Amino acid sequence: MNAAVKHSPNFCLHCGTPLALKTEVEDGGPKARLRCPACGWTHWNNPTPVLAAVVECTDQGGRVLLARNAAWPGRMFALITGFMEAGETPEEGISREVAEETALQVQQVKLIGVYDFQRMNQLIVAYHVQAYGEVSLSPERAEYKLFELPDLRCWPAGTGYALADWLRASGHEPQFLDLPRRPSAGA
Fold this sequence. Notes:
Elements: H1 3-6, E1 20-26, E2 29-35, E3 42-43, E4 48-57, E5 63-69, E6 80-83, H2 90-102, E7 105-117, E8 122-132, E9 141-147, H3 158-169
């Protein structure tokens, strides 16, 4: 099952009728969309913007903070991420997320790039954030580690590619973790 269907509503948000998957030609080609057969409402299923930060701790010798999400099994450490909220710029949003999840004071925010994460139907906007202060994790985070740049290992997915691009721009050739592949929906 693709992300376009897996993360979608089952019923029309306007009239409550069960939605039906319809393929129609639009915008130059066939597109499969969930549509309401009663009122015609369409679920466009646009990707959700997610903000991510490579957090460089300026008062810790430039080491990079990676954190483990409390809901994750195992000991995978990753970038600080969060959803962009209405009424804020992406820069304001990632500054807020870093402050909320780590209690660090953000000094500078610089765009790294934009990455797709189709498995979750997300568009990741990644930043290099310079910050300082004493780390105090939010309940969303179980633990953190500070890494020297040569010790960082990237992962083959959205935010891992952002970390790799930042490392390259910082003069370090990224090293990737060899993670087991997720089983496909048909497997």
